[in-house]
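Hello,

Our lab assistant flagged a job as stuck in the queue for most of the afternoon. It eventually completed. Since we weren't sure the result was trustworthy after the delay, we are filing this so someone can double-check. Below is the sequence as submitted and the structure that was eventually returned. Let us know if re-running is recommended.
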Amino acid sequence: MRGFLWWAAALVCAAQSTAGFVPRGLSLRRSHRGALGTPSPPREGLSSVSRVPRGGVVPLSALPVAPQDAGVAVFGLAAATAWLKVWTTLAGKDLIDPKLSRKVVHSGSAPLFILTWPFFTSGAEARFVAAGVPLLMLSRLLLASFGKQPELLKAVSRSGDAKEAVGGPFLYVVMLLVFTTAYWRSSIIGVVALAQMAAGDGLADIVGRKVGGARWPFSDRKTYAGSLGFVLGGFTVSLGLVYWLATFSCVDLGGLGLADVAVRLAAVSVASALVELVPLGDDNVTVPLTAAVFTALAFGLPLSPVVALS
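-- returned structure --
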């Protein structure tokens, strides 16, 4: 409990000083209504901190940090800590296989974090406050690599080697940080990319181990069942998160119906699953990057992030 309070206090302090750490010249341009996958106009009551003037650019260093954003970020950190604690405790008591525990944590961490996004304000600085959650998780993983976070190391490591903390798990959180700051809830690209990385890749391993069966001819580890699990998991979670954000008017689907959105997301899931089969690079990098590209193509969206240096 003391450790969580320390991290929560650090997150609040980071949130209050976020503007000061944004590189000079970094700004957020006002999004236009009606573009597919872009934010709808903010609803009254959900956001009130700052509004970017029509056609103008507001330096992030001039914007305040809303207490609401800091509060939601602390809640997100608490939820992430609890999610990790539940599964590590079950694994520690031999109630669940440690390998399964790690993959459940992998599958659920990013989607749970995204569920908190609608509760941040529409202030331009909100994404950077939210990014404090994965940023603090990165710092914990770095500490774990030096043996300072034994419980976390046990949760993310297969062999107990401290170096694993800065391997796949570290890249997972880096991608979470990158897509949060680059796309935020302003585009479905980031949401779908993270869903494929988390739920798709995670369920591929879980289903592949549990079901087994025939393997792909070019791989002695990947199974047909695992790939099917990837597609179903990535598709279902992507669809759910996209409509979760749309429900709160965070994104505008441009008039596309459920069937149209589902077909496009299914195609993205298949493409991401195929890339997961390729033994090149780390899945925590190749899968979300592939998903981002194919989401942009499927929905006709620009790949360029909303935040730009000017």
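-- support follow-up --
The delay was a queue issue, not a problem with the job. The result is valid. The radius of gyration is 19 Å. Confidence is low (pLDDT under 50) at residues 4-8, 14-34, 43-52.
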